[in-house]
Specification:
The chain is mainly alpha-helical. It has a single domain, classed as lambda repressor-like DNA-binding domains (434 Repressor (Amino-terminal Domain), Orthogonal Bundle). About 60% of the residues lie in helices and about 0% in strands.
Length: about 150
């Protein structure tokens, strides 16, 4: 899935007539999200751009390859927002990339006004991709760890 700023698409729609909608949809189809596969394709695109393999993401995120692939393909759905965040951190995603992935999965983006999210944002912005360091930061501030207890 390619990227085009939402503002740019919004501007195109601003004064559009219904008769022009077909050409808008066909011209910009490659920039739009398409159902449940949009999340998977987005994750793959970002990981491919960083030369990171999915199996490495699953391993670093602490899940089996079979379970991780079912979550990414949305064959199985999770309500565990931290799992999606772990996938993103394991893939060295930026704050924007992580927020977009969460949104595509149907979850809330990382939110600067949420204190726990703020800690995660600071870790990502400072390229802290080691889960034990992130967990330590979260626990030091009185928040639950990002990784599950084993």
């Amino acid at each position: 899935m390619l990227k085009k700023p939402t503002d740019e698409l919004n501007n195109l729609l601003e004064n559009m007539k219904p008769d022009d909608l077909d050409s808008y949809l066909s011209d910009n189809a490659k920039y739009m999200t398409e159902g449940p596969k949009a999340f998977y394709y987005y994750m793959k695109d970002v990981l491919d751009s960083k030369n990171i393999k999915l199996k490495d993401v699953y391993s670093f995120a602490g899940v089996s390859e079979s379970y991780g692939s079912k979550i990414l393909s949305q064959e199985k759905h999770t309500t565990d927002r931290d799992l999606i965040i772990r996938f993103c951190i394991a893939g060295h995603f930026t704050w924007d990339e992580t927020s977009r992935a969460l949104k595509l999965y149907g979850m809330n983006e990382l939110y600067a006004k949420d204190p726990r999210d703020a800690c995660i944002i600071v870790a990502i912005k400072n390229r802290i991709y080691n889960f034990s360091d992130i967990d330590e930061l979260l626990m030091d501030k009185g928040f639950p760890k990002l990784t599950p207890d084993e």
